[in-house]
Design goal:
alpha+beta; about 25% strand; ILEI/PANDER_dom; disulfide bond; signal
Length: about 220
Protein backbone atom coordinates (compact mmCIF):
# COMPACT_ATOMS: atom_id res chain seq x y z
CA UNK A 1 0.00 0.00 0.00
CA UNK A 2 2.78 2.37 0.92
CA UNK A 3 4.55 1.61 -2.37
CA UNK A 4 1.38 2.21 -4.32
CA UNK A 5 0.81 5.48 -2.48
CA UNK A 6 4.38 6.56 -3.17
CA UNK A 7 3.99 5.80 -6.86
CA UNK A 8 0.73 7.72 -7.07
CA UNK A 9 2.28 10.69 -5.27
CA UNK A 10 5.30 10.69 -7.59
CA UNK A 11 3.06 10.42 -10.65
CA UNK A 12 0.91 13.29 -9.43
CA UNK A 13 3.99 15.46 -8.73
CA UNK A 14 5.42 14.72 -12.20
CA UNK A 15 2.13 15.56 -13.91
CA UNK A 16 1.76 18.75 -11.88
CA UNK A 17 5.33 19.81 -12.79
CA UNK A 18 4.70 19.07 -16.48
CA UNK A 19 1.46 21.08 -16.39
CA UNK A 20 3.15 24.09 -14.73
CA UNK A 21 6.08 23.97 -17.20
CA UNK A 22 3.69 23.88 -20.15
CA UNK A 23 1.77 26.88 -18.82
CA UNK A 24 4.98 28.87 -18.26
CA UNK A 25 6.18 28.09 -21.81
CA UNK A 26 2.84 29.13 -23.32
CA UNK A 27 2.86 32.36 -21.31
CA UNK A 28 6.43 33.11 -22.42
CA UNK A 29 5.52 32.54 -26.07
CA UNK A 30 2.42 34.71 -25.71
CA UNK A 31 4.45 37.53 -24.13
CA UNK A 32 7.05 37.28 -26.88
CA UNK A 33 4.34 37.45 -29.52
CA UNK A 34 2.79 40.42 -27.72
CA UNK A 35 6.14 42.20 -27.59
CA UNK A 36 6.60 41.52 -31.28
CA UNK A 37 3.25 43.13 -31.98
CA UNK A 38 4.16 46.16 -29.89
CA UNK A 39 7.55 46.57 -31.59
CA UNK A 40 6.21 47.62 -34.97
CA UNK A 41 8.79 48.92 -37.45
CA UNK A 42 9.41 52.67 -37.11
CA UNK A 43 8.32 54.57 -40.19
CA UNK A 44 10.86 57.28 -41.02
CA UNK A 45 10.18 60.15 -43.36
CA UNK A 46 12.38 60.07 -46.46
CA UNK A 47 15.20 62.60 -46.68
CA UNK A 48 13.86 65.64 -48.57
CA UNK A 49 15.09 65.85 -52.13
CA UNK A 50 17.41 68.77 -52.77
CA UNK A 51 15.70 71.40 -54.91
CA UNK A 52 17.19 73.84 -57.41
CA UNK A 53 19.13 76.70 -55.80
CA UNK A 54 18.42 75.03 -52.42
CA UNK A 55 14.75 76.00 -52.38
CA UNK A 56 12.66 74.30 -49.69
CA UNK A 57 10.09 73.24 -52.27
CA UNK A 58 10.40 72.82 -56.03
CA UNK A 59 9.24 75.41 -58.51
CA UNK A 60 6.20 74.41 -60.57
CA UNK A 61 6.90 73.05 -64.06
CA UNK A 62 7.53 75.81 -66.55
CA UNK A 63 9.30 78.08 -64.03
CA UNK A 64 12.86 79.26 -63.46
CA UNK A 65 14.28 78.98 -59.92
CA UNK A 66 16.43 81.78 -58.53
CA UNK A 67 18.11 82.67 -55.25
CA UNK A 68 20.14 85.80 -54.51
CA UNK A 69 22.22 86.06 -51.31
CA UNK A 70 24.08 89.18 -50.27
CA UNK A 71 27.46 89.11 -48.64
CA UNK A 72 27.79 89.01 -44.87
CA UNK A 73 30.81 90.52 -43.14
CA UNK A 74 34.19 90.04 -44.80
CA UNK A 75 34.12 86.27 -45.03
CA UNK A 76 30.72 85.44 -46.51
CA UNK A 77 30.63 86.44 -50.15
CA UNK A 78 27.55 87.17 -52.22
CA UNK A 79 25.97 84.34 -54.23
CA UNK A 80 23.62 84.42 -57.19
CA UNK A 81 21.96 81.18 -58.28
CA UNK A 82 19.71 80.65 -61.30
CA UNK A 83 18.26 77.29 -62.33
CA UNK A 84 20.65 75.56 -59.90
CA UNK A 85 23.72 77.17 -61.47
CA UNK A 86 25.86 79.47 -59.34
CA UNK A 87 26.33 82.46 -61.61
CA UNK A 88 28.30 84.48 -59.06
CA UNK A 89 30.15 82.93 -56.11
CA UNK A 90 33.47 82.81 -54.33
CA UNK A 91 34.13 79.41 -55.90
CA UNK A 92 33.68 80.90 -59.36
CA UNK A 93 36.12 83.68 -58.52
CA UNK A 94 33.80 86.34 -59.94
CA UNK A 95 32.43 87.98 -56.79
CA UNK A 96 33.81 91.12 -55.19
CA UNK A 97 33.24 94.16 -53.04
CA UNK A 98 30.49 96.46 -54.21
CA UNK A 99 27.52 95.54 -56.42
CA UNK A 100 27.59 92.15 -58.12
CA UNK A 101 25.41 91.72 -61.21
CA UNK A 102 24.54 88.70 -63.36
CA UNK A 103 22.49 88.92 -66.55
CA UNK A 104 20.45 86.03 -67.90
CA UNK A 105 18.76 85.55 -71.27
CA UNK A 106 15.13 85.07 -70.28
CA UNK A 107 14.25 82.91 -73.30
CA UNK A 108 17.12 80.44 -72.88
CA UNK A 109 17.67 80.70 -69.13
CA UNK A 110 21.43 80.96 -69.75
CA UNK A 111 23.80 83.47 -68.16
CA UNK A 112 25.11 86.08 -70.57
CA UNK A 113 27.48 88.06 -68.34
CA UNK A 114 28.63 88.62 -64.75
CA UNK A 115 30.56 91.47 -63.17
CA UNK A 116 31.10 93.27 -59.88
CA UNK A 117 31.52 97.02 -59.43
CA UNK A 118 33.61 98.25 -56.50
CA UNK A 119 31.84 101.16 -54.83
CA UNK A 120 34.54 101.86 -52.25
CA UNK A 121 37.51 102.71 -54.46
CA UNK A 122 37.67 103.95 -58.05
CA UNK A 123 34.93 105.36 -60.28
CA UNK A 124 32.82 102.36 -61.29
CA UNK A 125 29.35 103.89 -61.10
CA UNK A 126 29.37 104.90 -64.78
CA UNK A 127 30.79 101.51 -65.73
CA UNK A 128 27.88 99.84 -63.97
CA UNK A 129 25.42 102.04 -65.85
CA UNK A 130 26.95 101.00 -69.17
CA UNK A 131 26.77 97.35 -68.16
CA UNK A 132 23.05 97.66 -67.39
CA UNK A 133 22.28 99.67 -70.52
CA UNK A 134 24.09 97.17 -72.72
CA UNK A 135 21.87 94.33 -71.48
CA UNK A 136 19.47 93.34 -74.26
CA UNK A 137 15.69 93.51 -74.04
CA UNK A 138 14.44 90.22 -72.59
CA UNK A 139 17.20 90.05 -69.98
CA UNK A 140 16.98 89.25 -66.29
CA UNK A 141 19.32 91.22 -64.03
CA UNK A 142 20.20 89.75 -60.62
CA UNK A 143 22.10 91.99 -58.19
CA UNK A 144 23.68 91.58 -54.75
CA UNK A 145 25.99 93.67 -52.61
CA UNK A 146 29.10 92.51 -50.80
CA UNK A 147 30.64 94.78 -48.17
CA UNK A 148 29.88 98.36 -49.30
CA UNK A 149 27.83 99.08 -52.39
CA UNK A 150 26.89 102.70 -51.77
CA UNK A 151 29.79 105.05 -51.04
CA UNK A 152 30.71 105.83 -54.66
CA UNK A 153 27.37 104.88 -56.22
CA UNK A 154 26.17 108.03 -57.98
CA UNK A 155 22.59 109.25 -58.17
CA UNK A 156 22.27 108.72 -61.92
CA UNK A 157 23.20 105.07 -61.43
CA UNK A 158 20.65 104.81 -58.64
CA UNK A 159 17.98 106.31 -60.90
CA UNK A 160 18.80 103.76 -63.60
CA UNK A 161 18.32 100.90 -61.13
CA UNK A 162 15.16 102.57 -59.84
CA UNK A 163 13.82 102.60 -63.42
CA UNK A 164 14.21 98.82 -63.42
CA UNK A 165 11.76 98.67 -60.50
CA UNK A 166 13.91 99.02 -57.39
CA UNK A 167 12.14 100.48 -54.35
CA UNK A 168 15.23 100.51 -52.10
CA UNK A 169 18.22 101.63 -54.18
CA UNK A 170 17.68 105.26 -53.16
CA UNK A 171 17.81 104.15 -49.52
CA UNK A 172 21.04 102.17 -49.74
CA UNK A 173 23.64 103.20 -47.15
CA UNK A 174 27.19 102.36 -46.16
CA UNK A 175 27.49 98.56 -45.99
CA UNK A 176 23.78 97.94 -46.49
CA UNK A 177 23.02 94.36 -47.51
CA UNK A 178 20.91 94.59 -50.68
CA UNK A 179 19.56 92.09 -53.22
CA UNK A 180 17.43 92.75 -56.28
CA UNK A 181 16.09 91.04 -59.39
CA UNK A 182 14.71 92.92 -62.39
CA UNK A 183 13.59 92.31 -65.95
CA UNK A 184 14.51 94.47 -68.91
CA UNK A 185 11.83 94.84 -71.54
CA UNK A 186 9.12 92.88 -69.71
CA UNK A 187 7.42 92.74 -66.33
CA UNK A 188 7.96 90.24 -63.54
CA UNK A 189 4.95 88.93 -61.56
CA UNK A 190 3.91 91.09 -58.61
CA UNK A 191 3.81 88.16 -56.19
CA UNK A 192 7.48 87.11 -56.33
CA UNK A 193 10.33 88.35 -54.12
CA UNK A 194 12.19 91.03 -56.03
CA UNK A 195 14.14 93.04 -53.48
CA UNK A 196 15.30 93.23 -49.89
CA UNK A 197 17.61 95.51 -47.91
CA UNK A 198 19.20 95.40 -44.47
CA UNK A 199 21.06 98.46 -43.16
CA UNK A 200 24.18 98.46 -41.04
CA UNK A 201 23.47 99.28 -37.41
CA UNK A 202 26.04 98.98 -34.63
CA UNK A 203 23.38 97.83 -32.19
CA UNK A 204 21.96 95.05 -34.36
CA UNK A 205 24.79 94.07 -36.74
CA UNK A 206 25.45 90.32 -36.85
CA UNK A 207 29.08 90.86 -37.78
CA UNK A 208 31.50 93.43 -36.45
CA UNK A 209 30.67 96.45 -38.61
CA UNK A 210 28.39 94.58 -41.02
CA UNK A 211 24.70 93.65 -40.97
CA UNK A 212 23.46 90.12 -41.50
CA UNK A 213 23.32 88.79 -45.04
CA UNK A 214 19.88 88.71 -46.66
CA UNK A 215 18.36 86.74 -49.50
CA UNK A 216 15.43 86.49 -51.86
CA UNK A 217 14.31 83.45 -53.81
CA UNK A 218 11.43 82.43 -55.99
CA UNK A 219 10.11 81.05 -59.24
CA UNK A 220 9.71 82.95 -62.49
CA UNK A 221 7.26 81.70 -65.13
CA UNK A 222 8.87 81.05 -68.50
CA UNK A 223 5.96 82.42 -70.54
CA UNK A 224 6.12 86.12 -69.67
CA UNK A 225 7.24 87.09 -73.18
Amino acid sequence: MRLTGLLLTSLAAWYLGFFIAAQVLQTTISNAEFQGIRKKPVLRAPVPKRQKCDHWSPCPPGNYAYRILSGGGKGKMAKICFEDELLISEGNGNVGRGINIATVNYKTGKVTSTKFFDMWTGDHSGEMMSFIRNAQEGTLLLMATHDDGSTLLKNDAKKLVEELGSKEIMNIKFRSSWVFIAAKGFKLPDDIQKEKINHSDRKTNRYNGWPAEIQIEGCIPRNLI
